[in-house]
Amino acid sequence: MRYISTRGSAPVLDFEGATLAGLAVDGGLYVPESWPRFEADEIAAMAGLSYADTAAAVMAPFVEGCLSREELRALCEQAYGRFSHAAVTPLTQIDHDQWLLELFHGPTLAFKDVALQLLGLLFERFLTGTDRALTIVGATSGDTGSAAIDAVAGRENIRIFMLHPDGRVSDVQRRQMTTVLSPNVHNLAISGSFDDAQALVKAMFNDRPFAAQHRLSAVNSINWARLMAQVVYYFYAAVRLGGPGRPVAFSVPTGNFGDVFAGYVAAQMGLPIAKLIVATNVNDILARALTSGDYSSREVIPTPTPSMDIQVSSNFERLLFDAGGRDGKALAAQMAGFEASRAMRLTNAQREGAAGLLVADAVDVDDMTLAMRWACEASGETIDPHTAVALAAARRADLGRTPVVTLATAHPAKFRDAVERATGRRPALPSRVGDLFDREERYDRVPATFEAVTAYIDARS
Ligand SMILES: Cc1ncc(COP(=O)(O)O)c(C=O)c1O
Ligand SMILES: N[C@@H](CCOP(=O)(O)O)C(=O)O
């Protein structure tokens, strides 16, 4: 499998190259040159497979030429062996046609573990026996940071610098990052929003001498391997609900557009998906873009769903590229316009390419709160606020009798203050993170400027 950049002028890479590169040198994102397709009988044959076996089957075409099927399977066994539920991502029925896909049984209690546990092992596999070392720079609104740190803490040849917006992540999220005291882990609390952090990360990649000197790599969903691993649970869930014979819809709490783009990829690979609901909070740039073509960024409004308080969604570029006809040069010009003005209009081709599969809905705090209460009353489930945004959108989508799977992206205990405010229930921290509040924290406050962040990294090299 070969990987090309969405902006059309970076070198074509194999899977290992794309994984280690993170962002492409032309500022674009790597995508497979073409989508592998499964026939209906191949999808049906996934029924009854374990999660690790499903993962190996779904991802095998993407790693072709770099990893054998056996190597991939062994890595999946190791990655998913750390999950606390035997099904890894179990399904729970909460109403006749409504299901939750629980993606929070990994070490840091959010869906990010599904991809990052594997990515940590892939980095190790590609670096072992070489003299290469990586500097990972990442931006987090709370969950990617802890999952990435857990995946690479203590690993040789890797250093990680994780930027989070100071004061805008939950106390559990912050402590899951800042109490990891391994010498290769550096946490930077920056004075700004997640978008500022993400822009700084992209600026570091785009500074070619800096990127080359430090051998930068990415753990955010700009890294293709992240999305590849997230494609798996769409297959796993759909097959359990009668796929491929019975189409299933998914409602996805969305910020950076990584998780829902993984669903888009599953559909391109042949999985019958009735609809993908792109559920945002009031930071609704994606909902506006998909409903009216207006992709213009506004001030970020802080909400009880901080992990989705995002106005510039990095993976949207992958959708614009694929749905718009894969014209890298045209997209490079469109993105340059967006980067200059923070606004752009989608082309007709991009809108039409997305419209068959994707619908969008922006959910405010009141409706999110009602969804949390409804889940408690209807099925006794305590859900986290991000999940509740998607559940609210799932319940008001008009999809007849199609089963709708809401992606439950975080454990409610990660956002226990917001959960308690909405439901009166305070979820207990699972025992695997039980002493989080007794651990020592270590992080530095750093201004949200390119100079300050790069100086911080230079000083620790
Ligand atoms: C709990 C939670 N839900 C949803 C999202 C949004 O996912 P994505 O950025 O892939 O759209 C995030 C952040 O990524 C998150 O941490
Ligand atoms: N909500 C995310 C934001 C970063 O998203 P990513 O999927 O691109 O890593 C977070 O929790 O950090």
Automatic annotation (TrEMBL):
Domain Threonine synthase N-terminal: 2-80
Top-level EC class as recorded in UniProt: lyase
Catalytic activity line of the entry: O-phospho-L-homoserine + H2O = L-threonine + phosphate
GO molecular function annotation: pyridoxal phosphate binding; threonine synthase activity
EC number: 4.2.3.1
Amino-acid biosynthesis in keyword set: yes
Protein name (Swiss-Prot/TrEMBL): Threonine synthase
Family that this chain belongs to: Belongs to the threonine synthase family.
Gene Ontology biological process terms, A to Z: threonine biosynthetic process
Residues of the Tryptophan synthase beta chain-like PALP domain: 95-344
NCBIfam families linked: thrC
Keywords per UniProt: Amino-acid biosynthesis, Lyase, Pyridoxal phosphate, Threonine biosynthesis
Gene3D superfamilies in alphabetical order: 3.40.50.1100, Threonine synthase, N-terminal domain
Cofactor entry: pyridoxal 5'-phosphate
Pathway membership: Amino-acid biosynthesis; L-threonine biosynthesis; L-threonine from L-aspartate: step 5/5
Entry-annotated residues carrying N6-(pyridoxal phosphate)lysine: K112
Pfam families, alphabetized: PALP, THR4_C, Thr_synth_N
